[in-house]
Amino acid sequence: MDNIQQHQKELCNKLWAMANALRGNMEAYEFKNYILGMIFYYYLSDRTEKYVEKLLKDDNISYENAWKDEEYKKAIIEESLNDLGFVIEPQYLFRKLVEMVENKSFDVEFLQAAINSLMESTIGTPSQADFEGLFSDMTLDSTKLGHSVKDRSAVMAKIIASLDEINFSLEDTKIDVLGNAYEYLIGQFAATAGKKAGEFYTPAGPAELLCRLACLGLTDVKSAADPTCGSGSLLLRLKKYARVGQYYGQELTSTTYNLARMNMILRGIPYPYFTIYNGDTLEHDYFEGKTFRVQVANPPYSANWSADMKFMEDERFNEYGKLAPKSKADFAFVQHMIYHMDEDGRAVVLLPHGVLFRGGAEETIRKYIIEKLNVLDAVIGLPANLFFGTGIPVCVLVLKRERNGNSDNILFIDASKEFEAGKNQNILRDCDIDKIVEAYQQRKNIDKFAHVATMAEIAENGFNLNIPRYVDTFEKEPEIDLAAVSAEIRGLQKEIKQINSKLKPYFDELGLDFPFGEED
Known about the structure:
- By secondary structure, the chain is α/β, with parallel strands linked by helices.
- Helices cover 45% and strands 12% of the residues.
- A 9-stranded mixed β-sheet has the order 3-2-1-4-5-7-6-8-9, sandwiched between helices.
- The mean pLDDT is 89.
């Protein structure tokens, strides 16, 4: 393990230990807003200090002194808003908060003033929409944090002091160390949040698989989107495999929406290069008028939606003839993604297996996607218990506008047995992901694992995509040698007789009836 990895591991362990030690009676998923919010503030402060230091490099003047000079102050504000999108005044830098904690003068109201100042600096600027309400979930007057200003100040002071003790080492070459630690914490909070975790986090294994499949053969992606982006982790993972020009996301839950924007900024995506919307993707399509080269999604499984007849006029849904059922919005998300694919777009989405075989309106939509649109490229079955809050096995649908010579078939992969059993969850390992991606690339029949099904075969199955119809994983029972079994039974009977003949004299001596029958 190299130094950066070692540092990363130590940092993650320290952060999680700190989070557990400080959260008191608060639920982990609630306390995450304070820990992650302060790490984010630390990051913005560190960026400010480094940026201003570079700005004033040749002027031989400190940030504090430059701020007192109106000309310098005006120039710093202008440059910071242009390049960073925000301003943190010298008095509100993280190290100033640390000094206040150390000399016992810190109070939570000063921290609130610092956050207000940062947010106000963005008003009326191009970055306003990306920063607006970012810290609204870090409610510093909440009684959950403490019943008095003094109590709340004490908790936040401990968080500030603890973060100061941790060596983040934010040199440019290691900038992802903090980003990875942030991601780790989001995952850890998700692991303790039960069903609520599904609202904001896709575990690393399935997320990695989706992004690899989505980016196969691509080096540059003009625009990428996630219509149910959660904390943005899945969307951000795309940059491991391709250079993404613009990121787009939409998230219903406002707390998670704030987390996604923080995550974007913290992972080094400048504010002009991402747009995250807050709202219900199906009810209000903020992507209207946009198409994307790449889309990834892990929508809420079998969620309710209005299925209002007005959607029969919506271009995302009107060509299919039927709407997804009210109690199962799965196909509505798929239709949304298909509508927003560009002419060579691809979309990779995680869904419950029911979408593969359920009847009614879903069957009508499924048949249209396969037969009329011909955009379904592959169906991949994953193991059970991979996700937080649900033990159900899920499948991956790979959708492609341009099928590159495969328009007469669909690839089926059964990867349900490819995992490592974990304590609370099963884990999709790198070797499992490699096996799936390789099978997808090779696109050929692999015994008990993959099958290339012709459109005729799919039509014969009534457009039912249930994976066992195409990938036979039946393991034949070993043949039983009846003669050998019979011989073994005879041998055991002989052994029993010998034991009985030794036991009977003891029973006779004690005047007891022998319970195992008479010897032959």
